[in-house]
Amino acid sequence: MLLVSGSIAAAPAVSPRTLEEVRSAVDRGRWSTVDSKTAEALRLAGPSDDDTVWELRIRRGEALSPLGRYAEAKEILQPELPARLAHSAIAVRRLAALGVAALYTRDFKTAAGYFARAQELAEAHQPFLLPNALLYRATVDPAHADALLQRALQLARKSGNQFAELNILFKMNHGRMVGGHQYVAAIHDYQTLLQRARDLHYDGLVLKAEGELGWALRDIGDFEQAAPHFERAVQMSEKTGAIIDRVAFIIQIGNTAYDRGDLATAERQYRIAYPQATAVQHSQLGFIVNNLATIALETGRFDEARRLAAEAEAVKKNMGYADSLLVARLLNSRIAADTGDYEAARKFVEDVANETKNAATRWQAQVQLGIVYAAEKRSDEADRQFRRALTTLRDARSEIRDEALRLSFNNEAGESLSEYVDFLITRHRDEEALSAVEAVQAQTLEEGLGIKASRDPRTIATQTGATILYYHLGKKRSYVWTITPDAVKAATLPPRDTIHRTIDAYVRDLLGPAGGSMSRGTELYRMLVEPSGVRNGRVIVIPDGRLNVLNLETLVVPAPKPHFWIEDVVLRSAPSLQLLGRQPQAQKSAQSVLLIGNAPQADPAYRALSNAAREVAVVAKRFNRAVVLTGSKATPAAYRGASPETFDVIHFVAHGEATIENPFDSAVILGRDASGYKLFAGDIIKHPITARLVTISSCYGAGKRTYVGEGLVGLAWAFVRAGAQQVIAAVWDVNDAATPELMDAMYKSMNAGRDPATALRDAKLMLIHSKGMKPKYWAPFVIYSGM
Fold first, then answer.
1. Domain of 516, in residue numbers
2. What is the pLDDT at residue 7?
């Protein structure tokens, strides 16, 4: 028999079917499947140098990093490929996978080097993989990310690479949300991406899109809708094996429960995350253990709290988190103080303030010392420490130049402030406690308006002609101060979590088909109003926490016959006492209006307002001079160019977008011009106005993020900051069918000589008495006073 050299090709070491299954699983982000299939195939292939074996090794390396097995990934990816594969697709994938492994271990410089080489190789030899390579480069090159992603998207679409296209769109949308804070539009695009990913059975992107939707909804304050997305992301991560993402989303579910005061659920979620985070040395492991220790302390399990606190300290030390080690001492001090070992409590904390470079850690240490001294009945020393903490807060804040950062800075002081307030109230120093809260109340707003004077609360009550209800919600207990021309008196309310849960349940009721629970409305009235002693008349509320999203007019007075509190009071809100106390401007008559809205739909994320034209018409007829900018003329540039400072009233008929992450990016949604279609809060404050009233007849015009001392920050805050005397804005989604009638009645009442607060109440009572309308139609609108 003749033997012909090379006439019979050797059989591949891996079957084509297995290779296709692995490739499909990689494309769809099914990392557990990739792991199991490549492990078995490589075992069967043995030491073969076949091209398919090399591909399986690299595919396996791609899967191991998302599975949290970074060392294994690097080990399998590190060997150089044979020369015959130097320019192959698998060579590009190897470099990209090495870069991803470096990213997971936070070695960004090494990652950038691998991604640059992957791009160079793809440019020269593997154009189909170039979109992926450009996407990886964009993750480590933020300065050129936009250009890299645009090019990547163009190439992916041209080549028909749908998986790459979706990944690139996802990355672009993530940048849109994080960098541009375009939350509502980002949510809309994530929903579109999620559906496309499901259609392709692209599990890896379904996981990411569900998680990002959760984050986006959380950032605009919609916690209820965020939670199911986090839960589905966790479920998908279990299917794909993406443990790093899984741990992050489990932590987020726990954080949400903790914020609601549901410690049992929070602890359960942290305990689920703990072994998984330990297995991969997740960057949030110290955070998990620290939170478990905190919950153990708050539920009286002191031995367990000590053990967990020691473990948290060890984890943070191992990971090199120096300042977190100092925070661990604060936790140990709390444990010692709660078990009566005051000497140990002092020793744990007294050096922290001197060692830390972090202002937040320093004032927390000063507050903790104050707590220890108070427990030891050393009141003078406790008082000095609490005051020192507030001074540290103010000094650190004064060094921040960015106005948005100054807003969020005060949130770190919330619990510290509550501890001092508790200390003062228990010693019957009600007015001093009020002064402590007022010291940080609306600082950013007052600075912007140049308010420096500190006026007596009784004088301010006299000047406004109203009783002032000033709320402060604390973790252990809450307070309301009733301020009249004659007295300042504090009353104790339930803890913040109790109030928040009851408010959330009532707001859900109000917005639901039933229109509100009278019993829950009565419960809130008794919880929030009865302790103040106020029954009727003109009332100004300075709210705190989720009181900002509750219109107190909807509370139910139980006797003599159950009725909404709006029947008894003329209610308005204000950010602070001192803002109310500034020198009043001459009250303008409402003769002129700048009316802007009913713009063409600029983005599918914002539905058309079917009744906008009717509202424009009914409002315009109530004024002697009306400048109306509608349709294509209703743009951000048109508002700025219309001399808004010359009008008595400014009225928007448009959607509003409120963000929780950065309220300066809250916006009125108008028509598109060269600058876009959003009139941002950050732009609004740059253009001073003197309007008697600004009305934002839109969804969530009040804003969503509650800052310590600043109230609900968003569009209403921005217009007050710009100089408006009063602002009407919505705390809930607005029903645009009922709004034109409400606005027409309000401006008619103003023309009859009523002030805006009374006119708004008149309009609401008209809807209640003549139309029988439920609160969800009239209660979204709240009036905010700039003086």
1. 457-580
2. 40
